[in-house]
Amino acid sequence: MSDSDWRNANHANWDERVAVHLGPGGYDLTDLRAGRGRLHRIEEAELPPLAGKRVLHLQCHFGADSLRLAQRGATVVGLDFSTAAIDAARALADELGLTDRARFIEADVYDAPLAIPPPHGFDLVVVTWGAITWLPDITRWAQIVATMLRPGGQLYLAEGHPIAYVFDDAIRAADGRPGFFAPYFLCEPIIDNDPRDYADPTAHLVNARTYSWIHPLGALVTGLIASGLTLDWLHEHDAVAWRMFECLVQDVELYRWPDKPWLPLAFSLLATRR
Fold this sequence. Notes:
Elements: H1 3-22, H2 30-33, H3 41-46, E1 54-58, H4 64-71, E2 75-80, H5 83-96, E3 102-106, H6 112-115, E4 122-128, H7 138-148, E5 149-160, E6 167-172, E7 178-180, E8 190-192, E9 210-212, H8 217-226, E10 229-237, E11 239-240, E12 249-251, E13 254-256, E14 266-273
Parallel strand pairs: 1-2, 1-4, 2-3, 4-5
Antiparallel strand pairs: 5-14, 6-7, 8-9, 10-14, 11-13, 12-13
Helix pairs in contact: 1-5, 7-8
């Protein structure tokens, strides 16, 4: 498999998702348009103060969370590889009158140091929810994060837990729970042709093929440390921001196991550049 295979497939898939996520069955932007955008409870409880900070939001999609950060007084650069997403993000920033606080750049994450004009030296890099699973090289990703931060700058990451990615509804257990889908230490990409969308269950994607990777927690943390970051804390959560499995039940805006917290569904961390 060449780099262009997975990039082209994932690019087409995410370009198509933008219209779905901006449609009636997609993301709810009511709070954002009212000027009081809220993040999920996990980020709300954990993110450091943002007023006056220079923030880089990697894999920002169409910029909804980037603009929520801007509404809190941050100056934000959002980066995403999807042309449709960046076009939508710029239009949304203009609609909300936030073009002085948020700008959006179309580029691959691995090209961020070249795509974003200097000076870099961001106070905070933010990466949240279903982002790093689309990247094949987690060590290189960690190096990119470190490159974009000033000394003392921080990375905030909130993600689906890699142990949960071992399971999937495509293989059901007898009780209806997700079954084993991919090995935790799988080195190859997971190639999927699922036409469903996580936000809008009525959507049927034409560009359904995707390539994703499971990054074990140890490899992620080791990559960050090797890149010059110090781990401040690491939290594991029994809830996640989207319906990862059909059996999960919604608790306000997060999704949990229906009975017991069988395994972590998400994790978050804060790391500081040395």
